[in-house]
Amino acid sequence: xxxxxxxxxxxxxxxxxxxxxxxxxxxxxxxxxxxxxxxxxxxxxxxxxxxxxxxxxxxxxxxxxxxxxxxxxxxxxxxxxxxxxxxxxxxxxxxxxxxxxxxxxxxxxxxxxxxxxxxxxxxxxxxxxxxxxxxxxxxxxxxxxxxxxxxxxxxxxxxxxxxxxxxxxxxxxxxxxxxxxxxxxxxxxxxxxxxxxxxxxxxxxxxxxxxxxxxxxxxxxxxxxxxxxxxxxxxxxxxxxxxxxxxxxxxxxxxxxxxxxxxxxxxxxxxxxxxxxxxxxxxxxxxxxxxxxxxxxxxxxxxxxxxxxxxxxxxxxxxxxxxxxxxxxxxxxxxxxxxxxxxxxxxxxxxxxxxxxxxxxxxxxxxxxxxxxxxxxxxxxxxxxxxxxxxxxxxxxxxxxxxxxxxxxxxxxxxxxxxxxxxxxxxxxxxxxxxxxxxxxxxxxxxxxxxxxxxxxxxxxxxxxxxxxxxxxxxxxxxxxxxxxxxxxxxxxxxxxxxxxxxxxxxxxxxxxxxxxxxxxxxxxxxxxxxxxxxxxxxxxxxxxxxxxxxxxxxxxxxxxxxxxxxxxxxxxxxxxxxxxxxxxxxxxxxxxxxxxxxxxxxxxxxxxxxxxxxxxxxxxxxxxxxxxxxxxxxxxxxxxxxxxxxxxxxxxxxxxxxxxxxxxxxxxxxxxxxxxxxxxxxxxxxxxxxxxxxxxxxxxxxxxxxxxxxxxxxxxxxxxxxxxxxxxxxxxxxxxxxxxxxxxxxxxxxxxxxxxxxxxxxxxxxxxxxxxxxxxxxxxxxxxxxxxxxxxxxxxxxxxx
Length: 802
Hints:
Layout: H1 4-11, E1 31-33, E2 49-51, E3 57-58, E4 66-70, H2 71-76, E5 92-97, E6 100-108, E7 124-128, E8 131-132, E9 146-153, E10 167-173, E11 181-189, E12 193-205, E13 208-219, E14 223-225, E15 235-236, E16 239-251, E17 256-269, E18 275-279, H3 302-308, H4 316-324, E19 330-331, E20 338-355, E21 358-376, E22 386-408, E23 413-434, E24 445-465, E25 470-491, E26 494-495, E27 498-500, E28 506-508, E29 516-536, E30 539-550, H5 561-564, E31 570-585, E32 588-611, E33 617-641, E34 644-660, E35 680-691, E36 698-708, E37 711-712, H6 719-723, E38 734-735, E39 738-748, E40 755-762, E41 770-775, E42 783-788, E43 793-801
Parallel strand pairs: 1-2, 7-10, 14-19
Antiparallel strand pairs: 2-3, 4-9, 5-6, 7-8, 9-10, 11-12, 11-43, 12-13, 13-16, 14-15, 16-17, 17-20, 18-42, 20-21, 21-22, 22-23, 23-24, 24-25, 25-26, 25-29, 27-28, 29-30, 30-31, 31-32, 32-33, 33-34, 34-35, 35-36, 36-39, 37-38, 39-40, 40-43, 41-42
Protein name: TonB-dependent receptor
Family: Belongs to the TonB-dependent receptor family.
Subcellular location: Cell outer membrane
């Protein structure tokens, strides 16, 4: 942390100011990178170096919305996955796709996809070492041995161009040090947690160094299966994670540096189940019959079927009653559950200084991701109401990005030119069962899709100093996408892909030719323009506007001609303006950040729930709506006394559909709420550092509190569907406002040694809160189930370095 005198030198002329973009607080420097060279030296400890415009700059000097989280904060709050970042950025949210822990849906500033499946690109891209992590499976890996994490908010139309209409999350891995060093961690915690981490810096020569890093996490899980049967008492919500990373940095010549990063991550989980909350009594599929009257599908009903299996409480209604009377982390399932993902990648990053004013950069990557999952989606011990069984997915992607960076006109013009190529190919297989006992002729459901997608673009951006204080920035990108999707869907062994015949009739494809290829091309120009004025060295005002693009595609679940039609791209245009400054109020050191923005969200891709043949749940993807999002973001950092830092963040987000009609009935749906988007959200964090006498180390205490307003939690619901729910059921479609508190207490350099000891507690007051779920009360399945976030967890970590 810098001295007060140093801070006054750069900030003393500004008495009171507010700032825009984001504040990373008054912590040690972090580096927000977008295809950036290695971090440069900081001027002092308040300067945060970013390269979001492809060159190293002080964050306080650039009109880019970034929340930067340094390595110390990641350690203090035990950030091991993307969901943990929600407590640090109020506009960022993560929800599991239908309860799958390794398939996340990300949201920033209200911009969120309906779900995470092949064929539908994300709205918020996850980047590791400047390379996009695709698909959703596996995007939550690699949260260890990081220099920092950065969250770029708003559409990134030029320098990040691929499907970043909401923003981007960047993970920057730690680079090799110049001297041989070892650092590590051993940790223990509740739920049988045992974790380790190790990093080794190996300088092989003055110009060649290697860093090896790895991490393991083992835990039993916090959920208990209380269903009758062979799986009674088993644990869920645990994991077995193994990660290894090698980073090699070499100066090939005096002007060429090459970085090679190889990663391997494997995360096996025993699933995370949902909790049944309600059953629709009017739904014949789910209704429990105590006798042979009114049989469904030729069956005597679920009660009789389950009674024959020896279950004394078989009905879904009984399952709701049981769930209401127990802890939300006691769950029911009649099958083994798992959700596993494995990924490896190789990234090559070459930077060549062609001259004092010209740099060439090449980023090449190859990555493979494989996943498998089996989840009891109906959350009951009743056999196969709705179950995914042995779902698998594999994806291979490679990318090439070339950049030419330079300065001209006596350094008044800073510019970057580039090109990007990306190709992905993979298969997602989604077998499952829908009321297997009652509809034996319609099971199992086998959905399989083969994706083959290509994207390429060219871009240019420049910043020109009109005066020493006034800078104009403009950039443009041209994007082209080719999407191919081959559908192979069967139900009970018969082809389920219906096509139109020349005579106007419809019929499924024959079993021996059950394959339907789909292909289309999409393109869109995107870009950015901004102007900023440095009123004083400590005070910046700016205005910016960006256009972002999310590619179109095809519906993986399509099985009738209307659903085979491609959905078009969606776009987001924003306008953002504000100021940012560092200053003192009396003796108190301050940094304030305020952002005000308005977004126009058009051709929104929405997944619409439909019923397939046999009544099984399905979906269609359409460009259904347009909307606007207005927001205000305030971040305030205060250092009232030496050693105490307080960071506060507040976000107001107001999204509204402007035009939204049911594509089939043309009913006005503009009152539909945005999901996982709280109107108000707050984050408060305080950190205290106190050196001990006699060189005995330093005490470090951190407390973090995150609050969010009420949110709707089902992306498939429209205002029309919501209105069909009884008033007593409506609260189940939401998560009410709640707080989550995290604390850590650390003793660094224990008794002057190279050991650090830390104790932490996550969700300290054991708040029960929903992170997603399946809500098909009015649909074929007729039930509501909720996925809950983890309960309180306490643990200790011992860190060392040599």
